[in-house]
Write a structure and sequence with these properties.
This protein is of the alpha/beta class. It folds into two domains: about 5-225, Rossmann fold (3-Layer(aba) Sandwich); about 225-295, 2-Layer Sandwich (Alpha-Beta Plaits), CATH 3.30.70. The chain contains ten helices and 14 strands. The strands form three sheets. A six-stranded mixed β-sheet has the order 6-7-8-3-9-10, sandwiched between helices. It has a four-stranded antiparallel β-sheet with strand order 2-1-4-5. The protein has a four-stranded antiparallel β-sheet with strand order 12-13-11-14, with no helix packed on it. Helix 3 runs parallel beside helix 5 (about 135-150). The longest helix has 16 residues, at about 165-180. The relative contact order is 0.13.
Length: about 300
Amino acid sequence: MAPIVKVDDLRKVYKGGFEALSGVSLSIEEGEILALLGPNGAGKTTLISALCGITTPTGGSATIGGHDIVTGYRAARAMIGLVPQELALEPFEKVINTVRFSRGLFGKSNDPDLIERILRQLSLWDKRNSRIRELSGGMKRRVLIAKALCHEPRVLFLDEPTAGVDVELRRDMWQVVEGLKAQGVTIILTTHYIEEAEAIADRVAVINKGEILLVENKADLMARMGRKTLRIDLSEPLDRVPEALKDYDLELAGDGEALKYHYDTRGDGTGITRLLQALAKEGLSLRDIETRQSSLEEIFVGLVHEDTP
């Protein structure tokens, strides 16, 4: 089956010579959630803007559902829902009219049942007759999502959808995204909250300086690149790491009541057995031991740092 979003060597150069996209290639399968991660200025919004027809690429090509984003832009755009970063809404219009109007822009007939279902799904039904200016920032963000969903798109772009939203609303939105995936909607998410990607994404793409650094299944990425940390809680605190343990690159934690040892599971050996033997030889008594996997955020920071000269 052909990918629903296909990007080949896409480029965007602005006047003055700044290259925002430097030959991006990407394939996204129908029904998956792809998290697009990158620092500010990495090219995330430019890529989404190009795919959604907001800006015109200067090279390469891309298709949405087989429709070229330039030569077949009307058909491609009809398949797309976009939740932008900016809260660009008519402040004096009612919520329900705002959503109805967006559906009409795509030539869709009025469907009161669908509109009600979307508003209820986003906890906006009770606010349907409120004017936009009366809503909180989080509720306005929900209206943007409702606008993006009202014409029943097959591909949904979420550009920082939970910016300025409190934790409770953010988790509600994660549930909405999971529900959309269950309906077969393909979702491309950009976010500064890496825990979002870790919680809901199937695959992760990392972009920096207009280039894709990697695209990989989230679980495989964390297994391949994640380090583990062994935390050793001591019965008696230390004021420094004993000289005999210097080779293990240990670090003190918890006011000297614990030692942390970082290791790579991909290596031939973790060194844990030798470390425990060395601790016993030093007469250190252990109270507890636990291991922790590196988070996606730590992996992301490491990738971007490696790409920075």
